[in-house]
Design a protein that fits this description.
By secondary structure, the chain is α/β, with parallel strands linked by helices. It is built from eleven helices and five strands; from the N terminus they run E-H-E-H-E-H-E-H-E-H-H-H-H-H-H-H. Strands 2-1-3-4-5 form a five-stranded parallel β-sheet, sandwiched between helices.
Length: 222
């Protein structure tokens, strides 16, 4: 197996992180495994440090639906991201891969299968459950909004996440340590890229491809 890898586990449930860490210990010899419970933690862990793999939950503080995946793929395109989720809907799995994930591992996956999947992904391959048909098509409106969301810059993804949380421009500016004018410019760019006229429409557009956060959290905590 691979040696000397630095791997980030991003999940807000300590028990899940512990189980994933155990799985990684059997898949990757001598790996430096970093545990993160929020998107902010992940961002800090990535700062100035080479990372070989991110295991990312779809729902945790700072992340909603596919926003965390979009942000990581835009900010760090060189790092493979694997979604590890309690949501096993085939639509969710297909969309994760189409948005740039290198794999999708359901949390119910047996540990040995999980280890094999992680080993393959570290070798540059993609892994999804065998029963998922990647040729199934999204409806045209969903496919269009996915393409539009994928065109956002990392900072625009962050702003859209915060818009989805109901934050005002001045609150977003404070959180991101930039001027309110900068946030207004980001919002204008987001509206243009998504082809909508208002912040509300942007949030609705983004939510159309999201998984249900309650389902994710409830299942993950089970």
């Amino acid at each position: 197996m691979s040696q000397g890898n630095r791997i980030i586990i991003a999940d807000d449930h300590p028990l899940v992180r512990g189980a994933l860490k155990q799985a990684l210990a059997g898949a990757v010899d001598g790996a430096d495994i970093v545990e993160c419970g929020t998107l902010q933690d992940v961002t800090a862990a990535l700062a100035g440090q080479s990372t070989d793999l991110i295991l990312l939950d779809l729902t945790m503080p700072g992340v909603r639906g596919f926003s965390g995946l979009l942000y990581m793929r835009a900010q760090h395109p060189e790092i493979p991201v694997v979604v590890v989720s309690a949501n096993e809907e085939h639509d969710t799995i297909r969309r994760s891969i189409k948005l740039g994930a290198s794999g999708f591992i359901p949390k119910t996956t047996p540990v040995e299968t999980m280890r094999q999947a992680i080993g393959l992904i570290l070798q540059g391959e993609t892994w999804i459950p065998a029963d998922v048909n990647m040729n199934a098509k999204d409806d045209s409106s969903t496919a269009d909004i996915m393409q539009r969301l994928a065109s956002l810059t990392p900072q625009q993804v962050r702003v859209l996440m915060m818009l989805s949380e109901g934050l005002l421009n001045k609150q977003i500016a404070y959180e991101l340590s930039v001027s309110e004018a900068t946030i207004k410019a980001h919002v204008s760019a987001i509206l243009q890229k998504l082809g909508v006229d208002s912040r509300t429409q942007a949030v609705i557009a983004a939510s159309k491809i999201e998984t249900a956060p309650r389902t994710e959290e409830g299942a993950a905590g089970a």
